[in-house]
Amino acid sequence: MAAHARIGFVLLLMPILLWLVLLIIIPHVDMLLISLRERVGVGEYRTSLANYVTIATEPLYMRTFMRTAVMSVLATLITLLIAFPVSYYIAKMARGRVRSVLFLLCLIPFWVSELVRTFGWMILLRETGVISQFLQWAGLVSGPVEMLYNDAAIMVGLVYTSMLFMVVPLVTTLDSLDDSVIEAGYDLGGSGWSVMREIVIPHAVPGIVSGCIVVFMLSLGNYLTPTMLGGKDSLWFTEMIYSQFIVRFNWELGAAFGFMLLFASSVIVWGMLRLTGQTLERTMG
Amino acid sequence: MIPDLECTGLTRRFGETLAVDDVSFSVPAGSFFSILGPSGCGKTTIMRMIAGFLEPTSGDIAIKGRSVLDVAPNKRPVNMVFQHLALFPMMNIEANIGYGLRRAGMSKGDIARKVDEVLDRIGLPGIGKRKVDELSGGQKQRVAIARCMVLEPDVLLLDEPLGALDLKLRERMKIELKSLQAAFDTTFVYITHDQSEALVMSDHIAVMNNGRFEQVGAGQDLYYRPETAFVAGFVGDSNRWRGTVERVAGDAVELRTETGLTMRAAAKGQAANGGAVDIFVRPEAIRLAREPGDLAGFDNRLSGTVGSLLFNGAASRIIVESGEAGGEIEVTLPQSGEFADLKRGAPVHVGWSAAQANCFAANGG
Amino acid sequence: MIPTIPSPRALNLIWTGYVALFFVYLTLPLAVVAVFAFNDSQFPSLPWEGFTLDWFFGDAAPKIGVFHERSILGAIGTSALVGVCVATLSVAVGTSNAFLFNRYKFRGRGLLYVLMLLPLVVPGIVLGISILVFSSTVANELWDAAQIDAELLRPGLVLVVLGQFSFITTIATLVISARLQKFDTTLEEAALNLGANRLTAVRTVTVPFLMPAIVGAAVVAFLMSFENFNTTLMLVGSDAPLTIEMFDRLKEGSTPLLNAVSLLLMLGSSLLALILIAFQRRS
């Protein structure tokens, strides 16, 4: 490399290294170290696995952890199932103006804060809410119905919040499938279902994977939706992190929680990439 | 004998525009039929109607004597090689070729056998496990054809499949396609805008323009005996003039071009006194000479100078600048050596017979 | 399946109906939020008590409108400040990253690229606590070692900016990289050939080409910062940005004031989106 290119290279390397090292790598290492600390007296600590032992032996923690993971997987699957036909419609069936309008409509929730979206669902679902009133007005129920503060409400909120992150990658990959490839499938005798199964879905795998990864991540790390729609006893892992850090001020245990969350999400993301033969660069970049 | 494919009165509108206008033709079994035309002439529309991806506005398509209008594309006994081949990138070669057989419900063992067989036939044995993007352009081409041929279709449609290839490969694939067609003994319907592809491979060619067939015939017919001005201009190169008829004597006419040249020509179709005509003379139909006396036998003679030499091996030409012609005339340079020392600016004489000058009544544009 | 392939009418109808239903689902929550901003009632719910603009302009209790509610206005200001800082920082670093990955081949490039993507797959709340933990560690060390009270490293706006910056930069990098990849480097060579030096060539040819992506990344970064909740929640000090302020109020029970704020937020974002689209059309 010539001298001036070398200077340019170093100058460009500095910001990214500062960013990644100071804000990502060291903080996470520090968090790991803190999580491995056990308080033995005032201002006295020693290194041990005590926090992790606590998590493993306390049924509430483990249950919450598993519940969060399972619900997130479920939310991801539901989002995929709902989003796929819509994405296919936008990418392959709609044409011209309709198509771009529909795609823009899908982006709308992104432009609105998650807080506003959740607030909207609260207005719809609560006992005095719009849906309850509508059902009473229609004579389908005799008294107010509380649809808030249960797992179904959490699921509705999670799916709603994540929808965009599934639709966009799906539309993008489906769009890149040439119409003639689908036509070729028909021309060679394929039916709607077999073309879908053997051609469209395999082609969409990168989009499905990146959509699922993002949706899973967002659900697992979501705090607002379970808290607001699930109520006090929603038992979401992020709520436990929050309460250890902010309410109980037990940072050691909180850091251990945080690390478990990070670990769980990494394992599932990695597993999903492995299973489908994708790489992070290709699905995210 | 019943033709493999027969279209009658085939018409397709897109809103106001008439993409295909009352086209009828039939393709005899086992022949190579091409539809040749500029882009936008409606040839792709015809092909997609035959494959079933477009419904005709009116008219009928029959395959082996049976109308297929009510048959869905996945049930028609025709298969198509798409413009960009449309090989399934998510499958390997074997799965690509076996796709249609699996749809037909054939057993795994039979599929494997058939796939191997067809890979042998296209000269690519043992590539079944490879991925689509590991193949070269020519190999992909052959796989795309094999993928259709295992299904033993009555008619194979090819939508400009050579368009994406580079020139050298395209030349080779022309010959290869022709021999594949002979080997499979299947009816091929081929659409292209490249006249050389059509001329080299086809038994019959339909020249298409503005939604209509201008002329259907063997390559030689189109080249030597064009029936319309469009065919004369589209197939092969020509010197072209516009002019007015001054005298008619049977098929022979005498006319004056807009550039002021008097010429004798052969009229195709109606030519009335005073009517506007287009005249086409092929560069190779014009004889080049150093002495005017050598051209005594020709009906039309001119003198001029060599404007430029366009060297292109066997297809070399010169441009003759001539005051009499009021412009430039392209003339094929004979390769016998007598003009090897021709230089720019040298005086030359050219001549051509009336029979080689095809003249058609001009229609506006 | 696709328009060129004939398919049963019923299937097409069902499919279209499903898509229509989907968009109802998508817009319903936002629509009710907007509508109840105009309800002349203490609660954002039915029955409809009549139309009012008090939740925007009202200045007397119990109906104090957005424009007279100091804490909300303050929170909007805080959010805007944080958003501008985050957008500026992340676009600057993102542009630098895009050039680095686009122009240089070096050892560890692949690894660095994966590292650059990682913040996207780290839950926001984990990003928040890790930065909180680390900054406290540093602040404590400073105090122990030199009795310096590093106020900036305690929960507050600086940490909020850093926390949001830590993952929004990845997005800015991806947006700008995508456009830089489409850049024809021979244009830069042409500029050099015509007498520009390296830096001038980049400034006069490459940067104008990147401008739509840079503006786009800035708008997206600003919006993401404005809307961010998870990371902010862990790092916030006494000055609450709007999302946190609204969250606290929502926990207490909601009034149509929140609907009014939400509606303004939606309008603001739409305006930004329109400006962005117009800008990208033009260039």
From TrEMBL, chain A:
Question: Which residues are in the ABC transmembrane type-1 domain?
Answer: 65-272
Q: Which UniProt keywords apply?
A: Cell membrane, Membrane, Transmembrane, Transmembrane helix, Transport
Name used for this protein in its record = ABC transporter permease
Q: Where is the secretion signal located?
A: none
* Transmembrane intervals: 7-26, 69-90, 102-124, 152-171, 204-224, 253-273
Q: Which GO terms describe its cellular component?
A: plasma membrane
| InterPro entries hit by this protein | MetI-like (IPR000515), MetI-like_sf (IPR035906)
Gene Ontology biological-process entries: transmembrane transport
Localization (cell): Cell membrane
Q: How does it sit in the membrane?
A: Multi-pass membrane protein
Please name the Pfam families in this protein's record.
Answer: BPD_transp_1
In the record, the note on similarity to other proteins reads: Belongs to the binding-protein-dependent transport system permease family. CysTW subfamily.
From TrEMBL, chain B:
Which Gene Ontology terms cover its molecular function?
A: ATP binding; ATP hydrolysis activity; transmembrane transporter activity
Gene3D superfamilies reported in the protein's UniProt record: 2.40.50.100, P-loop containing nucleotide triphosphate hydrolases
Domain (ABC transporter): residue spans on this chain: 5-235
State the UniProt keywords alphabetically.
Answer: ATP-binding, Nucleotide-binding, Transport
SUPFAM superfamilies attached to this UniProt entry: MOP-like, P-loop containing nucleoside triphosphate hydrolases
Q: Which InterPro entries match?
A: AAA+_ATPase, ABC_SmlMolc_Importer, ABC_transporter-like_ATP-bd, ABC_transporter-like_CS, Mo/tungstate-bd_C_term_dom, P-loop_NTPase, Transp-assoc_OB_typ2
Any one GO CC term of this protein is: ATP-binding cassette (ABC) transporter complex
Pfam families given in the database record: ABC_tran, TOBE_2
One BP annotation, GO: quaternary ammonium group transport
PANTHER family, A to Z: SPERMIDINE/PUTRESCINE IMPORT ATP-BINDING PROTEIN POTA, SPERMIDINE_PUTRESCINE IMPORT ATP-BINDING PROTEIN POTA
Q: What is this protein called?
A: ABC transporter ATP-binding protein
Q: What organism, scientifically named, is this protein from?
A: Roseovarius spongiae
From TrEMBL, chain C:
Q: Where in the cell is it found?
A: Cell membrane
Tell me which Pfam families the record gives.
BPD_transp_1
Which residue numbers delimit the ABC transmembrane type-1 domain?
Answer: 76-276
Q: State the annotated membrane topology for this chain.
A: Multi-pass membrane protein
Q: Does the keyword Cell membrane apply?
A: yes
User: InterPro entries this protein is in?
Assistant: Bact_Polyamine_Transport, MetI-like, MetI-like_sf
Under the heading PROSITE patterns, the entry gives: ABC_TM1
UniProt main location, coarse: membrane
User: Membrane-spanning regions, if any?
Assistant: 12-38, 72-100, 112-136, 156-180, 201-226, 257-279
GO CC terms: plasma membrane
Q: Which BP terms from GO are recorded?
A: transmembrane transport
What are the record keywords, sorted?
Answer: Cell membrane, Membrane, Transmembrane, Transmembrane helix, Transport
Task: Check the record and name the Gene3D superfamilies matching this protein.
Answer: MetI-like (1.10.3720.10)
- What family is this? Belongs to the binding-protein-dependent transport system permease family. CysTW subfamily.
Protein name (Swiss-Prot/TrEMBL): ABC transporter permease subunit
